[in-house]
Write a structure and sequence with these properties.
alpha/beta; single chain; four-stranded antiparallel β-sheet; five-stranded parallel β-sheet; RNA-binding; 470 residues; Rossmann fold; globular; Four Helix Bundle (Hemerythrin (Met), subunit A)
RNA sequence: GGCGCCGUAGCCAAGUGGUAAGGCACGGGACUGCAAAUCCCUGAUCCCCGGUUCGAAUCCGGGCGGCGCCUCCA
């Protein structure tokens, strides 16, 4: 009945069966990072989500082209059209070149993605590498009469695009945000946005280019329109991004793309992931309460435990991050992997059982990427004793293609075997006491070590020890 | 003021009309000299009030509470 992948389309506010424009192929564009500083774990949800989507598309047998942009110019600090450029600001503060900063944080972002099991995108495009494309699109808009010039730049006139409010279902007359900020007063409507910003007189920017309108730099929104169109065509399948982008950034993208290209439907499916709530407020660079992946690793957690944490909630719901929830995810992930890897190759693979017992998992994922439900199904498979170990392995291999948790292949770090002769000697002494059945002495040594945070674990191969918490 | 999300067991979180997935913790059990580690078992009628219905966590109305966007932000 419900064959195929169903996705929630923000444009129609409905779950719809995904049908690619070009049979057998799906084009996906994801709004990428602004690389003036480190990406924190909240910033990683969009990429975990996009990866989940890409994996689901591939599981349908589709070939996927995934494009992500890197914003390395033009993203302003305060107002969309009146603040400082974040890249320039970061460069000024650190005394470094903007390109150098962008390269560093782009690389860190890619490394973190890989640690989370996210493959690199097929196309990773930088705004600064596509200035001509952006200028060209602005020229097209100008030719269509959708732009106007004011003292600080070239702007898009949303009055020329009647569908402007459709995506976000905005009531533009009632939007009052503009009243709370210092705005570019020359704009015709407050929702108009900059396409090209002029370099300020007397200010030497690191990043500026010539254009038909004068020296300056592109507005933030135009890069996504220009680059997605370049790599995916004038109409493409799916565009993803944070829910916060829906009313402004994506409304702007649609306005400029559909106007410049002269088309009615630039993107078929818009998908937006919700925020992670960090015990009461969002984590954001602006608020300064950032927490990067390495911080998690430093506290003894596995990167893929964060992926597991992400998979425990649906992407369209705000997810609460707390240290306890993260620790719970870490334990859950380690246990699941240990159980999966403990499965033998015995019993042969029952292909029929693979087809039938994987149904719930596939149905969950195909229902708008319901990862929590799918993860529960995978967990049941690991522990389903009615299936042979080999069959369970086969099922888990299939599940993991969607989940990306490396269930059967992850190398779990064992108890850290530190070198400490003094502790080794005490552990050996306890073991000797145990063998002599001198329990009081053995327990005394164990308590002594416990008091300094060392836990002894007796295994079939003898005792090992580890420090409880760093 | 406008647009939008959410409120389910101690914590995280599925479920959107037929009588509550899963994970973690807690408790119980197995194992152990006792522990640790591991494995097994165990818990909720769904923020409040009213309505619709044979039947609601699930639909409608009204509250209370949390969060996001409208300004850079995933």
């Amino acid at each position: 009945m419900t064959e195929g992948l169903f996705l929630f389309n923000s444009r129609t506010r409905k779950k719809e069966r995904f049908v690619p424009i070009k049979p057998g192929h799906a084009g996906v564009y994801s709004c990428g990072p602004t690389v003036y500083s480190a990406q924190h774990i909240g910033n990683m949800r969009p990429y975990l989500f996009a990866d989940l989507l890409v994996r689901a598309l591939k599981a349908q047998g589709l070939k996927v082209t995934h494009v992500i942009n890197v914003t390395d110019v033009g993203h302003l600090t305060d107002d969309a059209d009146a603040g400082e450029d974040k890249m320039e600001k970061a460069a000024a503060q650190s005394g470094r070149r903007a390109e150098e900063i962008a390269a560093e944080y782009t690389e860190q972002w890619l490394v973190d993605r890989r640690r989370l099991g996210i493959p690199d995108p097929d196309v990773l495009c930088k705004a600064t590498d596509h200035i001509p494309e952006q200028i060209e699109m602005i020229r097209q808009l100008e030719a269509k009469g959708a732009t106007y010039r004011i003292s600080d730049g070239i702007y898009f006139d949303i009055a020329k695009f009647p569908r402007y409010a459709d995506l976000a279902r905005l009531d533009l007359a009632q939007q009052e945000g503009a009243n709370r900020i210092e705005e570019v007063t020359e704009k015709r409507q407050s929702a108009d946005f900059a396409l090209w910003k002029f370099a300020e007189k007397g200010v030497q920017r690191q990043q500026e280019w010539d254009s038909p309108w004068g020296v300056g730099f592109p507005g933030w929104h135009i890069e996504c329109s220009a680059m997605s169109t370049k790599y995916l065509g004038e109409t493409f399948d799916i565009h993803t991004g944070g829910i916060d982008h829906l009313p402004v950034h994506h409304s702007n993208e649609i306005a400029q793309s559909e106007t410049a290209l002269g088309i009615d439907r630039w993107v078929n499916v818009w998908m937006h992931e919700e925020f992670i709530d960090f015990q009461g407020e969002k984590m954001s660079k602006s608020l300064g309460n950032v927490y990067i992946l390495q911080d998690l690793v430093d506290s003894g957690l596995l990167p893929l435990s964060f992926r597991y944490f992400f998979l425990q909630a649906h992407y369209r719901k705000q997810q609460t991050f707390t240290d306890d929830a993260m620790a719970a995810a870490d334990r859950g992930y380690r246990r699941l992997v240990a159980q999966a890897q403990a499965l033998s190759e015995d019993g042969g693979v029952d292909e029929q059982a693979v087809a039938s017992h994987g149904a719930e998992f596939r149905a969950a994922m195909n229902d708008d990427l319901n990862a929590p439900r799918a993860l529960a199904a995978a967990t049941q498979i690991v522990r389903d004793e009615s299936l042979s170990p080999a069959t369970r392995r086969a099922l888990l291999t299939e599940c993991d293609a969607w989940l990306g948790l490396d269930l059967l292949t992850a190398a779990l770090p064992q108890a850290i075997q530190e070198k400490d002769p003094r502790i080794d000697r005490l552990v050996a002494a306890r073991q000797a006491a145990r063998q002599a059945k001198e329990w009081a002495e053995a327990d005394r040594i164990r308590d002594e070590l416990a008091a300094e945070g060392v836990t002894i674990e007796d295994t079939p191969d003898g005792p090992i020890w580890r420090r409880s918490e760093p």
